[in-house]
Design brief:
Blueprint (H helix, E strand, L loop, with lengths): L2 H23 L6 H8 L3 H4 L6 H24 L6 H17 L2 H16 L4 H26 L7 H20 L7 H12 L4 H5 L2
Amino acid sequence: MSVVVEHDKRRREILEKALDVFVEEGYSDTTFQKIADRCGITRTILYLYFKNKREVFIFSIKLFTETLELKLRSIAGNPEFSAIDQLKQLMNLIIGESAGQKKLLTVICDYLIYLNRSGSDPYERLRRRTIRLRHIISGIVIAGQKSGELSKVPVKVVTDMLYSLLEATVFRATILNRIASDDLLAAADLFIERLQARQQADKK
């Protein structure tokens, strides 16, 4: 195995274990030493892979979101599903994953609060992390409109509406300590069904 491949493999292993530390300890209480201890390495070795705790956290979240993105793209790219079904499955997956990742989402919220207090723009950071998700939703809507399955409504409005339901899921899980999401899933399904073009609905 080449040095580069081995380095990347070790880096990924560190990120996976570090994410557990962040979830258990919270962003503020997680230290470089705690991450090194969980990985069974020294701080000196950890510095060979990452320059600070913040970088470890960012790449840990990136690894998590990339895994989720692969699942979403497998839904969006499946020609056997209609646009309506793709949107429903996508929302079911994301809301379900979000409701089941309360601790992780709490850590992310803590980090965003930390950024805000330190003078950074948490909205811009979050927007960059979720832009691919918005593109996936927009892509499904655009394809559905082109095929005549979905009505011609502003794509941005649809994307923003569905995204707001995801934000509601996160808020309820992290702030209100509620993980039940059946009502949000029902709201998403109802909204998505209303996107169906009239001629398509008349065929049923």
